[in-house]
Amino acid sequence: MSTSVTLLLQQRFCYFVEMRRTVSVAILSVLPLLLVALSLSGCRADKTTQPSAVVDSSQPVAENEASNAGSSPVATNDKRPVIVCFGDSLTAGYGTDLGQSYPDYLQTDLNAEGYNYRVVNEGISGNTTKDGVVRLDRVLALKPVVVVVEFGGNDGLRGLRIEDSRTNLDKIVGTLKASGTKVVLAGITLPPDYGPDYIKQFNDTYAMLAAKYRVPILPFLLKGVFGVDGMMQADRTHATSAGNQIVAKNVLPLVTPLLKK
Question: Does the annotation count 72 as an active-site position?
């Protein structure tokens, strides 16, 4: 190989090495900037996603506060005496829109008749009489003048022991009465397939407690509603909005004698 060719190859090799060194230095100088940019981008992503995560995690809490016990009564500037409708899904207004439960319509009816009271809906779907006992402190904290007690349907549908349901309901009514609160007892009944003996004992519970504590009783909350077209939902268990209006009118004449205008 000639000397000139050797020199040419050496020059090209040195040029190639120098180019690789230049590129490597350039990459190393830019790399920290890229890392910083990626880090900042990640921070921005965290900040933008965090609020939605917070909102999502709060949704079950909101649902629990609306449908479960345990949270403290909401403070209000409304100083009117309180009437509490205390019960399960029949009181809560299960399956209807907001403002269409029977306590909502009871409030409307009381307003129309000139009674200056605030109706509080303390109905929670799925509650049994045992759950009602657990929630007594919450209801008493509202300092109600009247409580409409409606429990037992879920006990019966689950086939719970009559003795246990009766004891729990006795505890609810007795505790409220002992606090000085006036009580209205609203009963319910069961489908015929639960058997005549069980149904009779179930129904008798309400009459027995009403007599024991001398409180007014509505033997069947869904009077004029159950089995009437348009008054019951497809599940044949819960009232529609129209049905709840009738339920409110069933309750009204038992409540008004306990109030003052």
Answer: no
Residue 104 pairs with which residues in a beta bridge?
Answer: none
Give yes or no: 39 in active site.
no
> Considering 78, 97, 193, 235, which one is annotated as catalytic?
235
One of 88, 89, 125, 155 is an active-site residue; which one?
89
CATH topology of domain 82-258: Rossmann fold (3.40.50)
* Confidence tier at 21 by pLDDT (50, 70, 90): low
Q: Which of 109, 165, 238, 241 is catalytic?
A: 238
Taking the complete model, does pTM exceed 0.90, yes or no? no
What's the mean per-residue pLDDT of the chain?
81
Dist CA 208 CA 219 (whole Å): 11
Cα separation, 205 vs 48, in Å, equals: 57
DSSP code of residue 256: G
The mean pLDDT of 118-122, rounded to a whole number, is 98
Answer yes or no: 89 catalytic.
yes
**Domain boundary assignment for the chain:** 1-67, 82-258
Task: Give the residue from 62, 118, 122 showing the smallest Cα distance to 90.
Answer: 122
β-bridge mates for residue 149, sequence order: 86, 185
Q: Are 250 and 224 in contact (CB under 8 A)?
A: yes
DSSP annotation of 228 reads S
- Do the Cβ atoms of 73 and 65 come closer than 8 Å? no
Is residue 216 a contact partner of residue 210, using CB atoms and an 8 Å limit? yes
Measure CA of the first residue to CA of the last residue in the chain; give whole Å.
122
Q: List the Cα angle 178/110/90 in 5-degree steps.
A: 65
Distance, CA of 206 to CA of 42 (rounded, Å): 63
Render pLDDT for 163-177 as a digit per residue (tens, 0 to 9): 999 999 999 999 999
